[in-house]
Design brief:
The complex is a heterodimer of chains A (578) and B (77). Chain A is an alpha/beta fold and 578 residues long. Chain A folds into three domains: 199 residues, SGNH hydrolase (Rossmann fold); 145 residues, HAD superfamily/HAD-like (Rossmann fold); 186 residues, Gcn5-related N-acetyltransferase (GNAT) (Aminopeptidase), CATH 3.40.630.30. Helix content of chain A is 39%, strand content 18%. Chain A contains 22 helices and 17 strands. In chain A, helix 21 links the parallel strand 13 and strand 14. The longest helix of chain A is centred in the first third of the chain and has 19 residues. Chain B is built from four helices and no strands. In chain B, helix 1 packs antiparallel against helix 2 and helix 1 packs across helix 4. In chain B, 26% of the residues are buried. At the A-B interface, helix 1, helix 8 and helix 9 of A face helix 2 of B.
Chain lengths: 578, 77
């Protein structure tokens, strides 16, 4: 990590990793396959899902040449990302020999996998993200079933080891993502391979497989860019349980065993609980009596989800559009972060009509399909899961308690003092990089320049001479908010530095934490002799809070120069260096 | 679903030409970008859209809008 005290650097670029990453911009994906994968191009380009992708296919069956040769014509497309799609029988010659029963040698198969992994790793140095399909046994190929998993030489055994070795070799590189080809294949209700098209034109995979692949590839890229949804809002009657509790009676609702329908609703709740466990916020929105409905949630023996699993609820007779607005306000999130599951077509239609940003999928006709449906949703994709994700609901609950205390205590100062806020500040380190990149890419509201960068690009930029990045962990007596802030600086001249990124999670808003972050950043800049700090904002439709905060700090609006006299750590906040 | 307009849409999308340039009597050889690869992707997408499969020998013969429409309609009967 470089520091600000090092010599002057140039004006910061969009990013330092060579990719053109910007959340809203189109991404160019280079497809490198050992069979023709061109049908993916149209599927990726015509899909309305974010982000917009321009797909370009390298000449097929030139995987090695394209990946090794930086001068290959395929690289002239200047891709942001690369997809490497290979078939074991074509890319691993030893594997083909296994199928032919010519020779069976684990060592040779693994040697070929290592060589392939080396190509993938080389590629990961050229672009921001490398997607690699894992290897699956083609469904048309029946090997000797009694030997397929035989240790050291069974076909399935060898392929599993090949995939494991590939995963192991790629593990140190955070911008390599392995895609689960076996899952793509088994998730289809039709064949994954089309041997007619392979005979005619070397297109080995079927159209449904390409469609599945395109959807999953887009989901993965959304996860990398932090475009995943954040909140899942559920109705109660005929959604979380079968029947209408208030009409049918609590004892008659279908929920839990031994009733078959009740088991379906329990399995559905288990799927929702697992989403919550990995960082998706759950909420309830139901036309019901609040006290009654909460008593069902708290006490029904079949409930998997309990009150503490929900970050908030609106159980009342208001219309659901109003309720969603108020939940978005309470959670400090945009409407596009929300997904609503509701059994009523009328309610779904109303929300879609008035809030097109909210994703409101139709529920399957049968409750037996609810669990697989929610499990297969692609909108919650994430590139990694960190401590903040695992504890997100608890953190929001703590925030609710803080607000309650604010109501009970007098003025804002008194309340802030009573919180005992502690900000732990330090230079960006490798271990905090995934969360820092997540913050940079997911935060919309308190984000000064809305610069979107992949992990490696952020790290490379922060390591450049004259640049520095700091991360901030915030906690108070109610609990730990986690790593909620990222500020980066770049020295523009011997006397002037620029705040490039100033990003703070909405969880930390309203507690003057932003003042502490700015005070800290200005201190850092001044410690190395800089007497002028500028912080130009890139205004978007969503980053009003950050723009407003900074516009009150400028001594000059045109130059975006910070009036340092207006900065400092608030007395109620303790800042510790880490 | 009107098969003719749907087929024209699929062809125009894959060839990246306006749908208006795809006429019922258009032949593959007369349309820009209709190469062997685009031919196969068009056939794959048509099969998927209409839920049908053409025989291997038949696929090569689907070299005009009219022939594709007739092949689709024959299977829809």
């Amino acid at each position: 990590m470089s520091s600000l005290t090092e010599p002057v650097s140039t004006e910061p670029k969009q990013d330092g990793g060579g990719s053109k990453a910007s959340k809203s911009s189109e991404k160019t994906l280079l497809l490198v396959g050992d069979t023709l994968v061109d049908p993916l191009i149209r599927l990726l380009e015509t899909s309305p899902d974010e982000p917009k992708i321009r797909a370009v296919a390298a000449p097929y069956s030139q995987v090695h040449q394209v990946l090794v040769d930086s001068e290959h014509a395929a690289w002239r497309t200047n891709p942001d990302y690369v997809l490497i799609w290979t078939t074991p029988t074509l890319t691993l010659p030893a594997f083909q020999r296994v199928i032919q029963f010519q020779s069976i040698s684990l060592e040779i198969v693994l040697e070929e996998v290592e060589q392939f992994a080396e190509l993938v790793i080389q590629c990961s140095h050229k672009v921001g993200l490398v997607l690699v399909t894992t290897w699956a046994i083609p469904s048309y190929l029946r090997w000797i079933q009694s030997l397929s998993w035989k240790h050291h030489y069974g076909l399935a055994n060898l392929l599993a080891r090949a995939n494991l070795l590939l995963a192991e070799k790629c593990a140190p590189y955070s911008n390599i993502i392995l895609l689960d080809m076996a899952y793509w294949q088994i998730s289809l209700s039709s064949p994954a391979y089309d041997l007619r098209m392979y005979a005619l034109g070397k297109i080995l995979y079927s159209y449904p497989l390409f469609a599945k692949a395109a959807a999953e590839i887009k989901a993965v890229i959304r996860g990398v860019l932090g475009l995943g949804k954040k909140v899942l809002v559920c109705d109660l009657d005929n959604t979380l349980w079968g029947g209408v509790a208030a009409d049918d009676g609590v004892e008659s609702i279908k929920l839990g065993s031994p009733d078959p329908l009740g088991e379906c609703y329990r399995d559905f709740q288990l799927a929702l609980k697992s989403l919550k466990s990995r960082g998706v916020l759950l909420a309830v929105m139901s036309k019901n009596n609040e006290e009654f409905a909460l008593s069902v949630i708290d006490n029904h023996p079949g409930m998997v989800l309990r009150r503490e699993d929900f970050v908030c609820w609106r159980i009342n007779w208001n219309n659901k559009v109003e309720n969603l607005f108020s939940m978005a306000e309470e959670l400090n999130l945009g409407l596009e972060a929300f997904v609503v599951l509701d059994d009523s077509p009328q309610e779904r239609d109303q929300i879609r009509h008035f809030m097109p940003q909210v994703y409101v999928p139709d529920l399957p006709a049968s409750p037996a399909d609810y669990m697989p449906f929610v499990s297969s949703l692609q909108c919650f994709e994430t590139a990694n899961i960190n401590k903040e994700d695992l504890e997100r609901t608890a953190m929001y609950h703590a925030d609710r308690d803080r607000k309650l205390l604010q109501k009970m205590t007098g003025g804002i100062e008194e309340w802030l003092n009573s919180l005992g806020i502690c900000v732990k500040a330090g230079v960006l380190k490798r271990e905090s990089l995934p969360r820092a990149a997540q913050l940079l890419n997911k935060t919309n509201q308190f984000n000064l320049s809305v610069r979107r960068m992949e992990e490696q690009a952020l790290w490379d930029w922060a390591c450049q001479r004259g640049n520095a990045a700091y991360v901030f962990q915030v906690g108070d007596r109610f609990g730990d908010l986690g790593l909620v802030g990222l500020v980066s600086l770049s020295r523009l001249s011997p006397r002037q530095a620029r705040i490039v990124d100033f990003v703070m999670s909405c969880r930390a808003m309203g507690k003057r934490v932003e003042e502490a972050l700015l005070g800290y950043a200005v201190d850092k800049a001044r410690q190395m002799g800089v007497d002028s700090v500028v912080a130009p904002a890139s205004q978007t439709a969503r980053n009003g809070p950050a723009v407003e905060f900074f516009s009150n700090k400028y001594s000059n609006q045109d130059s975006a120069e910070i009036d340092v006299a207006q900065t400092g750590i608030p007395p109620a906040i303790r800042v510790e260096e880490t | 679903m009107n098969p003719v307009s749907e087929i024209r849409r699929i062809i125009s999308e894959n060839l990246r030409v306006p749908a208006s340039t795809i006429q019922p009597d258009s032949k593959a050889s007369e349309l820009p970008n209709w190469d062997s690869l685009n031919h196969l992707t068009i056939v794959m997408q048509i099969e998927q859209t209409f839920g049908m499969h053409f025989d291997l020998e038949e696929i090569g013969e689907l070299n005009s809008v009219d022939k594709i429409v007739k092949a689709v309609e024959k299977r829809q009967l």
